[in-house]
Design brief:
It comes from Paenibacillus lutimineralis. This protein is α+β, with helices and mostly antiparallel strands. It contains 8 helices and 12 strands. Helix 7 (221-235) crosses helix 8 (249-258). The chain is globular, with a radius of gyration of 20 Å.
């Protein structure tokens, strides 16, 4: 029977993680970032699912050939995951294997669903590859500000909730982010228009999240703010980590312009929740 672990039990899953897999999974298991973990055996797990706290996917960990676990997946997702996912606004299930042997299992277990597929790239940046001379200039009226406790507590910004909600997607509290993460934003006429910060952290590795308000896109704000963040990381012996979809051309362009190098690729799958799923909210 698939069971949810308490947060204090997450480290039971350390041995299920692929050391070369997504660092986001390890960040949840180590208790750095929020998330939920469901396993086949509470006392001695061999397979599991990590629901990332920012609702950006479900990572499958451990033994992909665990048939008892695999046979229960569809009913568990329909009866437990779907209702809870819909309560937080999700309309699809994103399945990601922590190692590539999960791909075949995911395709087989969810073969009866309308299963989509996409490719993902993971980049890392070494100080020797960082192009420090490629920092764009901001137009007049735009200002880069480091995210700190004062900024997160400042309610004078026109869209003050935008920044706080972004941090809340990934972190248990603003204080937790301030203690463990790094971040910058760009302000224009008292409005936060671009943010770039540590979404997940594992040791000295910082997985970067970046977003620019639609009305201010195509002004190189993302490139500017990412440059500030990675420069800060490298100056403090931290490793910038960039995880994005291959079809996200703007994100790929920013990463590669800064000097990030692809370290590995993986595949993600998704299927929409249908009308026959449990939709009671």
């Amino acid at each position: 029977m698939i069971t949810e672990l308490d947060r204090g039990e997450f480290k039971k899953c350390r041995h299920l993680l692929n050391p070369q897999g997504q660092m986001e999974a390890a960040a949840v298991v180590e208790g750095v970032n929020p998330g939920r973990i469901f396993v086949d055996d509470r006392m001695s797990p061999t397979s599991g699912i990590i629901w990332l706290g920012n609702n950006d996917g479900f990572l499958f960990i451990g033994d992909e050939q665990n048939e008892l676990f695999n046979q229960e997946l569809n009913s568990f997702i329909d009866s437990v995951i779907v209702p809870e996912a819909q309560r937080v606004g999700l309309d699809c299930f994103e399945a990601i294997g922590n190692h590539d042997k999960w791909y075949g299992t995911i395709e087989r277990v969810f073969a009866h669903r309308d299963l989509g597929r996409w490719n993902q790239r993971v980049y890392r940046l070494k100080s020797s590859d960082f192009d420090n001379n490629n920092e764009p200039e901001l137009k007049e009226g735009y200002e880069v500000v480091k995210i700190d406790a004062d900024l997160l507590g400042n309610k004078t910004a026109i869209n003050a909730n935008f920044l706080r909600l972004k941090i809340d997607e990934f972190w248990s509290s603003p204080e937790d982010f301030i203690n463990k993460g790094i971040g910058y934003c760009i302000v224009h006429q008292r409005e936060v228009v671009s943010v770039c910060f540590s979404g997940f952290v594992l040791g000295n590795i910082h997985c970067i999240d970046i977003e620019t308000v639609k009305e201010h896109q195509k002004k190189k704000l993302g490139q500017k703010i990412a440059h500030c963040l990675v420069k800060d990381c490298l100056n403090h012996d931290q490793v910038p980590y960039w995880d994005c979809m291959e079809v996200n051309k703007p994100s790929v362009a920013v990463a590669e312009r800064l000097g990030f190098q692809v370290t590995y690729r993986y595949v993600g799958y998704d299927f929409a929740f249908t009308r026959t799923d449990n939709i009671s909210i």
